[in-house]
Request: fold
Amino acid sequence: MIVDPDAPLVEPPETVTSPDGWLRAAVDTAWAGVALAVDYTASTPLDDVAAVRRVLITRQDPGAAAVRVRGADLAWAVGGVSQGYDHEAPLGVGVTYTAHPQYADGTWGPASSLGITLPAPGPPADVWIKSLDVPGASARVTVTAWPQLSWEARIEQAAIAGSRYPAAAQDVYAAAASEITLDAEGTAIEAVRELLTTPGVLLVQTRPAYHRPDMYVLMSGPAESLDGEPDESRTFTASLVQVERPDTAGQRMRMPGWSYDALAAQFATYDAVTASYSTYQALALRGVL
Reply:
């Protein structure tokens, strides 16, 4: 292999299609997510496509077990067409998406797969704090202080008569806990304030080079202080504790910045909507695909 060190880096494509043409994915750079479109009538149509009822989409991250995409576990695919949105894909690494169609009788059709990479955020705003319940409330922030993570040991012990050593048993370590300090300015101030003071599980993501794994967390004790004059930036602090990834079964698809209310605010009539989006799938995915 001959490598030219002066050659420009190859930029991964923002839109990818599976070899069979049934699954497509596009990077939503504005929100660091992936839009997913399934169409079993495309290319060479899937056998018995009329019998397809739902679709399951999974994501394979490097060195990890495959996980189900929230909102596509399972998603309705009547007529063989469906869509999904993944707001939880890791940043800066390649992942593989796989779609499995489910027929009306409960059996499964052939898998369709593709690979795609979400770009890592560049500094200084190189951390995403994402809301799972309201993805549109997510914010890209600048973290100024993120002290060491700590894991509490869970050890039970009991004294033994005549022995200096106790009887002890150790369970797995508790999930990580930490403090976080971040800066926000301008319109981001209200966004970060709302994000930190709204109950619910948040996802914290950053660049792979920082060796900070993606964490599902609950925030507590948020505080806000002025960095200078009232119209300047603010510093937010909060405590966080790591929790397990919330279950995906039966969850509806959520796409940041897109809802029926947002649609009504942009278009005065339904004719205007149909003139802008050729299919319901394109409408559901905000035109990303």
